[in-house]
Amino acid sequence: MEQTPKANRVHIGFFGRCNAGKSTLINMLTDQPVSLVSEVAGTTTDPVSKSMEILPLGPVVITDTAGIDDTSELGALRIEKSEEIIKKINLAVYVLRNDQAPTADDMMWLNKLKQNNVPIALFINEINTSPSESTSNNQNYVSESTSNKANNAHQGYINTYSELTSIATVVGSTDFTSNRDRLMLLDLLGGLTPLDVEGEQTLLQGLVEPGDTIVLVCPIDSAAPKGRLILPQVQTIREILDHKGLALVCQTEELPTLLGKISQKPKLVITDSQAFEAVNALTPADIPLTSFSILMARFKGKLQDLVMGVNALNNLKPGARVLISEGCTHRRQCDDIGTVKIPMWLKKKGHTDLHLEFTSGGAFPKDVSGYDLIIHCGACMLTRREVLRRIDYAVVQGTPIVNYGVLIASLHGILERAISPFLDELDRKGFEC
To answer: Which residues form the Hydrogen maturase F tetramerization domain (predicted)?
Structure first.
């Protein structure tokens, strides 16, 4: 679990009203005090995330959100953050109390999750009350004996509010005290199918077989993290090993020496996109070449849209609005790729007087219709669902979007070579190299 990148885990969001029991449920499922628990409404403010493992889902990220009915001074902002979580998660857990009828807000949020195609697991928080203490609309929810209470406590509630079953999968109820309930809920939750996860797709899907030699060019410059490699490089090395291939790693200037020392040409050379121009010149034409960023675009599932977006370069005019978006947050370097190098390369190719705007991390505008082009990073730190959402925003609003690696290859005149390993997967009619 600890070796699985956060972006590749299944993201599960927990939703419900204040004091519905979301935080308590998370603490029970994780068997850890992940979220603060209090009878005071609005205890959970900003979304709180925790990585863990739920079999058979495997490594997951669980996010606790603020109550949907938060009426505090900052409630509107907290609810807005909870709405943003919907766009990133693969699975939702919605918590209701069995002593309270579903409200209009509950139904609105459940339908909002459904409209975003997020699978919903509905948990009923079993509050220890008698039928006479329940809401007037829910007089029949307690009908089971103590012995089968853990498994069937929610049935009367669901019978009363049958419309819930058309929106969510009712996977259980709990009194938050039973280890049996915890194991049962983990098993039920693990049986659901999350939305937009990578599944069996990998970075090197179909590109490497046992015994293949793959050369990785990993420049160590001011942007490289101290003492380690960046995530796409680490993921690629691991996949080569998983496929019983041979991973050879070098910096740009060592590439000719490495190629001269191996008796057979490598199956593929993969480079950091920033070194595309130099690595292209150093790699013989009969050896396929691509970049980590392009592999990430393919891994996230929308390489064709990102390749098609590069055609917009030919139509950029002075004053054109261009959004450069990075999925991670980091301290800007003097030679930062997004804020320094890409603008420099654009200018060298004659794209002058552009109006450049920048976003990073979770920030990405919903309305992108005013941009003439979006240039997005490889998105190694974003979930596939988040990447698909951003690309879909652009496509639906008619705004071209391109990936760092695809853009840099195009600006250096080597796009055809850089995407050649994937041509069989692309619709060649939709773009020009």
So the answer is: 306-421
